Amino acid sequence: AQSVTQPDIHITVSEGASLELRCNYSYGATPYLFWYVQSPGQGLQLLLKYFSGDTLVQGIKGFEAEFKRSQSSFNLRKPSVHWSDAAEYFCAVDPSNYQLIWGAGTKLIIKP
Amino acid sequence: DTEVTQTPKHLVMGMTNKKSLKCEQHMGHRAMYWYKQKAKKPPELMFVYSYEKLSINESVPSRFSPECPNSSLLNLHLHALQPEDSALYLCASSRTTLDPAKGYTFGSGTRLTVV
User: Fold this and answer.
1) Mind listing the pLDDT tens digit for each residue in B41-62?
2) A32 at the B interface (CB within 8 A)?
3) What stretches of B40-102 adopt beta strand conformation (E)?
4) Contacts A32 to B, Cβ<8 Å
5) What part of A 67-96 touches B (C-beta under 8 Å)?
6) Tens-place pLDDT, residues A50-81
7) DSSP conformational letter for A74
8) Residue A24: C-alpha distances to residues A75, B14, B55, B57 (Å)
């Protein structure tokens, strides 16, 4: 069965430090991959997406993600986090063209 | 206009009330979605509309009734809800349901509390 795993429920990072959020998926072919961010009480904002081509994808707000087929991973990175990056981050896979399969989410906490 | 607008932002309703949630987009998207999100959980798909026709109903109870009056509007009619229906209701849209390069644009949601 298709699934998405975000192994870290919470991650705490100091402001200005680098960030990597992990995402692994289980799917037979290369799916369409997404990272979304959700600030408290808000909707979901698309950070970036991958569906083909260059495996390093640039997104908004200084985020990037790297697709690694051999590891079935699509990890999200940012070189220097800001306090405003504190939010819930969801990785999602779209294998069927209408139904997103979501990871459980990772809550990012920023230490001053 | 690259937004999905949802109204109201907050709604408190009794179990015998009838209310409606509204979602609007002017991006020319022909697929629209309703999701339900409980606290600390990812969104759960409820309904999918494609070209104003209901294409997916993920076994949602009949107390939730979707409607797509035109290509820009999506409503969710609520009747006889239960306290466990309290959640954030998110609307989303995409170019179509069959476009592999699509991204979904989400609204900010309606925070629903059933008392």
Assistant:
1) 999 999 999 999 998 888 899 9
2) yes
3) 44-50, 53-57, 64-70, 73-79, 87-94
4) 100-101
5) 88, 90, 92, 94
6) 988 889 999 999 999 999 999 999 999 999 99
7) E
8) 8, 41, 29, 28
